[in-house]
Amino acid sequence: MQLIKIILFVLPSLLVSDAFGNGINKNSVFVCYGRLQPESIKGFSYVILESKYYTFYEVQKIKSQNEKVVAYISLGEINANSNYFEQFNSDFSGKNEVWNSHYLNLKSEKTLEILMKMVDNILANGYDGLFLDNIDNFSDFGHQSNQKAEVIQLIKKIKTDYFNHILIQNAGLELINETVQYIDSVVVESVASNYTFDDKSYKLRNEFEFEEYVNKLVSIKKQYNLPILLIEYANTIPLRNAIEKRIKPSRFDYFIGNINLQSIPKFIK
Question: Which of 44, 113, 134, 166 is the most buried (most CB within 10 A)?
Fold first, then answer.
């Protein structure tokens, strides 16, 4: 699932703080794929943004107020609304109907050239690195499983060309053994929560599944010495609080938001 399409409204920092409440620990994670006033994004360890909404100078402002500021890029899909969409010349391997995006063909040299141009343009804006989305597409049961070798080589090239920048991998845990030397942390979605698209329902994940998931992530963190970041989904205050109660003992950094990721999270009573 395309994680990041997040926070859109222009609001003062006080309102941002009130809106999140206890949903985010200070100096933890902030995810935003929309436009905010740069001065309102403060005090986080990780900030993930949609690069097209910010100028170089605004990125510098945000960086001065946070530890790491990275920009979103998908290595597996391109949305039909992207400025780069037409450049791929319909060289796709299918469509993701949920997000109105198309699966990229990493076996195409042209596709790889365009992706690297996107990387160059994004990082020229001063970001500390990239958030690499849709890596789970390349796992054994993903739509692009036949491009696993290609995505690993692409991640390697990005890290080689930009060795001073951080790379955050979204999901794709089975690839970590081969990507670990190029990435700096891993994001995992819906560990404590379990949103289902068919009925548009927010809920907690089954407790047994949750415990197994957390144990697996703790093992990965220890084995590879990788920071683990969690993205969880809730729509009510009780569910948000239940998610926090579950994940806080893990000491993973986390973000809790609404599934559409298009506005400041709102949690009803």
Answer: 134
